[in-house]
Amino acid sequence: MSTAYQQLLERFRELHRFAHLEAICHWDQSTMMPSGSNEARSEALAELALMQHRRLTAPEVGDWIAQADGEVLAPLEQANLREMKRHWQQAIALPDDLVEAQSLAGARCEHAWREQRRSNDWRGFSGNLREVVRLCREEADVRSAARGGGRYDSLLDLYEPGMTRARLDALFAEIGGWLPDLCQRVIERQSSDTCLSPVGPFPTDAQRKLGLEVMSALGFDFDRGRLDVSVHPFCGGAPEDVRITTRYSEDDFSGSLMGVIHETGHGCYEQNLPPGWLGQPAGEARSMGVHESQSLLFEMQLARHPAFLHWIAPRLLDAFGHEGQSQALAPDNLQKLFTRVQPGLIRVDADEVTYPFHIILRYEIECGLIEGELEVEDIPELWNEKMEAWLGLSTRGNYRDGCMQDIHWTDGSFGYFPTYTLGAIYAAQLFAALEREIEGLEQHIRDGNFVALTCWLREKIWLQGSLLETDELLRQATGDSPDPDWLRRHLERRYLAVD
Amino acid sequence: MSTAYQQLLERFRELHRFAHLEAICHWDQSTMMPSGSNEARSEALAELALMQHRRLTAPEVGDWIAQADGEVLAPLEQANLREMKRHWQQAIALPDDLVEAQSLAGARCEHAWREQRRSNDWRGFSGNLREVVRLCREEADVRSAARGGGRYDSLLDLYEPGMTRARLDALFAEIGGWLPDLCQRVIERQSSDTCLSPVGPFPTDAQRKLGLEVMSALGFDFDRGRLDVSVHPFCGGAPEDVRITTRYSEDDFSGSLMGVIHETGHGCYEQNLPPGWLGQPAGEARSMGVHESQSLLFEMQLARHPAFLHWIAPRLLDAFGHEGQSQALAPDNLQKLFTRVQPGLIRVDADEVTYPFHIILRYEIECGLIEGELEVEDIPELWNEKMEAWLGLSTRGNYRDGCMQDIHWTDGSFGYFPTYTLGAIYAAQLFAALEREIEGLEQHIRDGNFVALTCWLREKIWLQGSLLETDELLRQATGDSPDPDWLRRHLERRYLAVD
Predict the structure, then answer these.
(1) Whether residue B213 sits in one domain with residue B137
(2) B463 with B402: CB under 8 angstroms?
(3) CA-nearest residue of chain B to A44?
(4) Which residues are Zn(2+)-binding (chains A, B) (predicted)?
């Protein structure tokens, strides 16, 4: 006779297997699928999503959870039950008609946005977005009534469990206190730098080969994963079969190279989740913020580290070098190229110094939208005000490169943006701990030996899955709760040579 | 309020969507998946199969079928209900513990066979096969009790609905009456032929490019399909997203070229199933035999036709030609190459003249096994006897190239083999009708214009889905019930110049 907890475990194992198939078919949709198959694929995936929802919200699951609360459980089992409850509550909270209305409104808004962004059509877009926001407010009402806490908090919890608006307000206020001055000083300091641009073309084949070499060096396991091409790079698939993607431009190798390193961070996390717990909720990655911390640790902390650029320089020369290229591909010049700070309109193109501005701006606007303090019509004016104040750039009349640049809001993913900057904070904090704890880390990196680094991450983060909550995970790994001061120290050291 | 029929339709639409995801993940497993992911993928697919089985055999489905029997239905709806009943009865017939035992025994036997075949280990293999046969006999008992008819018939029905052992006995007896003599005469006639072998290497890229060109010419829609590489070529995916595969050898272009044409036949059938009926059982391909008839019509009837070889010869020269290659790639020589008849041990390498021998041999043995007239231990001796009698070849002691060469029996797919020869009969019959009905067909083919041919197949076969039963489908397309005499006439004309 199975206990309620064991029955829950079996149901979540079933859901894990379905998630595997879902992820592979999503990956296929972005990488392999011919375009004419899109409708059938989308319908098939929607059917699977509905079935997953049904299996998660079936009446017996609620009963099992109630019973399991009274069972004697070991710590791992407690963590599983905690995560099961969270998934179940999130799934059961919303009435079916709201889920369906959101799915329709989101699909309509996202679909139209692709063309509207191109034609800078704010009027058309805002009509659709208004409906998405209206439904997300309803979602936040229902969710916050079910779980307690604030309305925006209830959305945040979908991506970053444990995080609240109150804590984010404090974190972002702190960053807002020092970042403008720091940014100004970096720009002044870099104004006299001269920096050579490597000259293409950089053949796709050579870029791919280099990407694979770097992935291997970083420990990506090609026996349980692949690298392919998609329009929008991502890390997908399942922990047992990780699929990362990139895109190549023959004019510029750095976008794909840094992108591959970023996705490899996500991929290594997934591949090294505790093997014995796969299929259990405690065996999943901790949160979006922690996930992003692994990709940013690889892409920003590690791959822009002078020692890493020293290691990769000869490899770049080997891949792309021709007469007269050697200076542009020398470590010093690479360092300047990869740490160039330049305010810009586009979030995804931003450097690590100006990036938090893009996030805080979106955070402030989306909080206002969800709490009902702002309306969709207010967005362009506010966007422009904040861009002018923080980055000295105007987006007046330029919706395309302003408030219409991101996909996130089109399908109602409010509460997601903060995880980018949380990831940057966690990454800085983790890398500082790595530097303290691994003797000779810099030399290891310079030698292209990433074993000590990845073993440390594996032990402290990857193998922890979702056993601990995020704060405790960071505390056990670094001795400190999440603290943006680690990001400040990192930026000051790298960009202002403050040690 | 929905009728029972409408509820059935919605349930089968759901199953169609799951089948889409299942097929894409199976395709991925054979083409893209890294080997270390196999266990997780297999578990995920098994979970999906279980869920599909549960949804098909849920109590309400039986109720709906009983009710729908009393509803007033149009002809398409009647065809749907007939196919729904068939799928449901097949699924509900077996007790769960038999399904599970078969799945385990099949997986064990197939897995071990891969190594046992290599090492010619009949002793090891026969132990596993005995259990597979035992369970298949049990399956045939249960199925025939549920549906009436013979035991072997009940397995045949899984692949070729409407076909029976009595009819197959008659068909194969007829073929056995004329084929030995015909085969003998062909071999004598060809004994004085000289035939030049094109000399490789044939670069993979050039083979792939040619394959894609031929697929396009034959009407394959790349907006809803792909060509990739796998160890064992197949046509998979879904009607809305057809995935065909091939494998390349740089020593020989003909294997991949003819393989691609074969799979394109399967693929065009799937892509041209009635678009308005997709998701309905009557919108599915008719049977394995009809499916095989489309691939064999493309590969054997069309692609070995002198007019086709005349069309493809300059394309081969273009792809692979070099100094001194032009004679080997001339139409006359290609004709000799592609119609060479040579008795051999291996079914998948057999020419179209000797192929039926391989099938009849397997058919006779598997009938005996299922009906309990033969035991597994009797197979090698019988196999050898028949091979010696029909093809003059011994397999004594050579299990690897004898009764251990095929995968089909390892997982219990008894009843499948006959569909290959049924496909060859249907293909010959359909091509004869095409020749009668399309004026100037030969010239069209010689010009690489396959539009009239594919339009005819589309109208007569592809767009019919499973509306009609196989005999009626053939009768409406060709004016005749399935008749092996069409195969005889085709072989005599092509191989003995009898007109």
Answers:
(1) no
(2) no
(3) B17
(4) 262, 266, 292
Is A25 in contact with B25 (Cβ distance < 8 A)?
yes
In the β-sheet with B241-246, what is the strand arrangement from edge to edge? B225-229, B241-246, B235-238
Per-residue pLDDT at A322: 75
Tell me: do A104 and A194 sit in the same domain.
Answer: no
Q: Are residues A133 and A236 in the same domain?
A: no
Average pLDDT over residues A140-150: 94
Percentage of the residues of chain B whose pLDDT score is greater than 70: 100
Query: What region, left, alpha or beta, does residue B280 occupy, with left being phi > 0 and alpha being psi -120 to 50 degrees?
Result: beta
Tell me the chain B residues in contact with residue A33 when contact means C-beta distances shorter than 8 Å. Answer: 241
Q: Which of B175, B166, B482 is nearest to B357 (CA)?
A: B175
- Contact in structure between A374 and A129 (CB atoms under 8 Å): no
Query: In the prediction, which pLDDT does A499 show?
Result: 79
Q: In chain B, how many domains are there? A: 2
Which member of A17, A41, A278 has the closest CB to residue B241? A41
Residue A444 annotated as lining a ligand binding site: no
ipTM of the complex, rounded to two decimals: 0.94
By C-alpha distance, the chain B residue nearest A20 is: B44
CA distance B227 to chain A (A): 11
Examine the domain organization and report whether B168 and B127 are in the same domain: no
- CATH number, domain of A204, equals 1.10.1370.30
The reply to whether B346 and B258 lie within a common domain is yes
Asked if B150 and B162 touch (Cβ cutoff 8 Å), the reply is no
Q: Select from A159, A181, A216 the last residue of a domain.
A: A159
Residue ranges of chain B with per-residue pLDDT less than 50:
none
> Using H for helix, E for strand and C for coil, what is the string for A343-370?
CCCCHHHCCCCCHHHHHHHHHHHHHHHH
Task: Share the mean pLDDT of chain A.
Answer: 96
Q: Do B44 and A20 touch (CB under 8 A)?
A: yes
Whole domain around residue B140: which residue ranges?
Answer: 4-159
Strands B225-229 and B241-246: parallel
CB B177 within 8 A of CB B484: no
Is A44 in Cβ contact with B20 (below 8 Å)?
A: yes
Percentage of chain A with pLDDT > 90? 95
A241/B24 touch (CB, cutoff 8 Å), yes or no:
no
Query: Is A262 among the annotated ligand-binding positions?
Result: yes
